[in-house]
Amino acid sequence: MNLGADIVMAFDECPPSTAPREAVKAATERTTRWARRSREAHRRTDQWLFGIVQGGVLPDLREKSARDLVAMDFPGYAVGGLAVGEERTTREEVLDHVEPLLPRGKPRYLMGVGTPEDILEGVARGVDMFDCVLPTRNGRNGQLFTSRGRLSIRNARYRDDPRPPDPDCACYTCRTASRAYLRHLHMAGEITGATLLTIHNLAHYLDTLRRMRQSILLGRFEEFRTEMRRSLTASAGEGEGS
Ligand SMILES: [Zn+2]
């Protein structure tokens, strides 16, 4: 509250995906109590406090959590406790179950997700907001997300490759650096390498989400979804070569 963030999150407890039912139940109930106390303690009118739906991968606990939080009337809702080791299909089932329980006119935030594919599927399920370490952490580790899939700059085949990381990207890195140069920086442990790879990954994520928003405004999100899935499947690993 004191920092003046635009959106702040209520406290929550996020158990691992393998936790037994009793542990998930206790964590979910604690999260609901914390949500109530956070709601009561929150004073600012120029700041949104979101509640966080927990409940692991257990449908009845998710449902109870969502209903209790919605009754507290938050300006937005987060779905937490996913992207903690569960299968993607399980995550999508939980989202399918929770989404209709949240008010239609309020923003939904899927915490800790994810890859471009995961974000696409989240948006398809009505999610508005995400946060994730992948674009920056993977950038530091030499992995690029591109329009043609992922590309590991450590790969020896890029040693003399004069092409930009992603020929379809207009970011600073793609306009000014070759794969060979980026590989050299990365292998030499030069911090500039981490900076340039991070710039590209963030640009790629922002551009992907911009195009997703545009497709929604134009009423053609399903076509966008099909096209993006197709290009990522068709070129799985091809960011690696083409
Ligand atoms: Zn780029």
Protein architecture, described:
With 242 residues, the chain is an alpha/beta fold. It has 2 domains: 7-130, Alpha-Beta Barrel (TIM Barrel), CATH 3.20.20.70; 134-234, no CATH class. 48% of the residues lie in helices and 10% in strands. The protein is built from 9 helices and 7 strands. The chain has helices spanning 21-41, 59-71, 88-98, 116-124, 134-140, 172-176, 179-187, 191-217, 221-234, and strands at 7-9, 48-53, 77-79, 108-110, 129-130, 143-146, 149-152. The strands form 2 sheets. It has a 5-stranded parallel beta sheet. A two-stranded antiparallel sheet has the order 6-7. Helix 4 packs antiparallel against helix 9. It is elongated. The termini are far apart. 33% of the residues are buried. The model has no long low-confidence stretch (mean pLDDT 93). The site of zinc ion (ZN) has 8 residues, from helix 6 and helix 8.
User: Average pLDDT value?
Assistant: 93
Quote the distance from N terminus to C terminus: 48 Å
Q: Give the CATH topology of the largest domain.
A: TIM Barrel
How many domains? 2
Described by the principal axes of the CA atoms, the overall outline is: elongated
Query: How many beta-strand elements?
Result: 7
Any idea what the CATH superfamily of the largest domain is called? Aldolase class I
Structural class computed from helices and strand pairing: alpha/beta
- CATH architectural name of the largest domain: Alpha-Beta Barrel
CATH uppermost class of the largest domain: Alpha Beta
Q: Give the ordered list of helices and strands.
A: EHEHEHEHEHEEHHHH
